[in-house]
């Protein structure tokens, strides 16, 4: 079947099946325009679809949703105020904290613009234009190219398209692949680099319940924070922003969740899903769990150390809990087994309908999945370096940077191109705020011990050569004593140095990074070759899967702008139990024990005596299709008014990344009415409330 025939077929299926849509799907702005307008009105959309997205201008209300590079946020005023989650701005809070000014614990409120606090590496991108570049990408691949050559050709063309796009002043561009390469889209955004903290609640509000409540319901967490975007030293004026609704939501109401979901895995085959389960998530749970314990132990009772590792610990905790949830959900839902049955159905259908390319592609995808299992533990440890010991991450980055800088810019790896260097330098400087040597040494020792236990055929030679047969703890201590990578000023000097200059330093940690470099290169080359194979195979298989589905299929999340349509709804987590979809301040007070993570601040307890706590909404559930990256996503009603901020999923729904189950697919959002109550009755922040247009 040709691509043109396939496109015609799926267009007919989309029109015929639009009314059968459920709340499943992370839809692109372009797909929203193709959905049945009558169905959307029936669901509760009161705005014309063209208000959400204007294809002629390439913008619309959806563009009020911005990316923070890992989270989502939404503009809420004409003067650049934006709302996102507390945990999404945690790095800015941590960066501006110190033992005698602990913003993490106590929170922060800027009552004037002059008091706002800048985050040195915080950025947001505002979507501006989406262009289909599938033909250009496909034509860039030489006929008969091998998989590695295919991957390199795709990468080269992506760089060329991005370079041309970024000739527009202020533009930040990328090329996103959908369905593994079935479609490529050039995404043009406008980057704002001056982001200043305006408001963050105390940690006891922003993280109420901590890890015990993470991914659980009922929740009572005020996971929100506010920042302001500046351009040329003045507040940025977005074309679109979300008015705030004081009316809130109730059970059954229609909502939309807008944001930049990071990665889902619904397009994977059963064999690939099994690899995600058996290696990615199982190893994350094991390794990150160990690292969390080491960070907590090495900083206990040390205020400086606790502040330094706070952001790292928060990220590791969330990823670790997520991994446990993925494993539990995959087992409970028998996801791999169901996918295996689904794969079999599509294979039979593809053979019957002459999708010969899809049949062969599926067989080769299975072979690649089996091949990946053989090196999975080795690959995981190399891939985990950026998440682990900070000094090792920095050393390997500096060594790679020096090598890449010697190449023409267009031939460098993407993260080391000239367009990225200012951000990379700022990160290497900013990371000193997150460095605490006793904790970092403990992480590196644990990393080395784990690498030394790898089986035959999985060894990391650079680790074996330096640490086998010696006391790992003592060897790691000597390593840190003989390096200047951990010194911020020296590290910034290294940033500008060549490979020869770095080698001449005879720095112990740099020497380890140089020894690791050939293995990192070999692993990345193997990964790139596999990527080239997937770019060849996945589109063939997905054509058959989508045609077999006979209805619109939203592509896997890939950090591009999406919208999910949903309704406020409770759910049944297990036999005999029903969870209502909304919680209140009364529930938070009921959970109060006086000890973290269930210690309600005194100022909240005092304010609660002046109101009826059961009448102050706090969090709510909807059946939106979300994932990581949707943290901070604006939740808006059918009129485009902000009613909340997405921040989590329920435990039963963590494995939603592999497939949507309408019975348990529930995301958790903080109710905007709780945010307004805090500003109005607790903080007395009339200046902000007036700017938001909710107070005269």
Q: Averaging pLDDT over every residue, what do you get?
A: 94
Question: How many helices?
Answer: 27
Strand proportion, as a percent range, falls in 5-15%
The CATH C-level class name of the largest domain: Mainly Beta
Count of discrete domains: 2
Question: What's the story with the biggest beta sheet?
Answer: 8 strands, antiparallel
Helix content: 40-55%
The CATH topology annotation of the largest domain reads as: Thrombin, subunit H
Low-confidence stretches: 1-21
CATH architecture of the largest domain: Beta Barrel
Secondary-structure-based class equals alpha+beta
Q: What overall form do the CA principal axes indicate?
A: globular
3D architecture notes:
Helix content is 47%, strand content 15%. It is α+β, with helices and mostly antiparallel strands and 696 residues long. The chain folds into two domains: 332 residues, Thrombin, subunit H (Beta Barrel), CATH 2.40.10.120; 192 residues, no CATH class. Strands 1, 2, 3, 4, 5, 9, 10 and 11 form an eight-stranded antiparallel β-sheet that branches. It has a seven-stranded antiparallel β-sheet with strand order 13-12-18-19-20-17-16. A hairpin with a 2-residue loop joins strand 14 and strand 15. Helix 11 packs antiparallel against helix 13 and helix 14 runs antiparallel to helix 23. The chain is globular. The termini are far apart. The N terminus is likely disordered.
At a glance:
This protein is an alpha+beta fold and 696 residues long. It contains 27 helices and 20 strands.
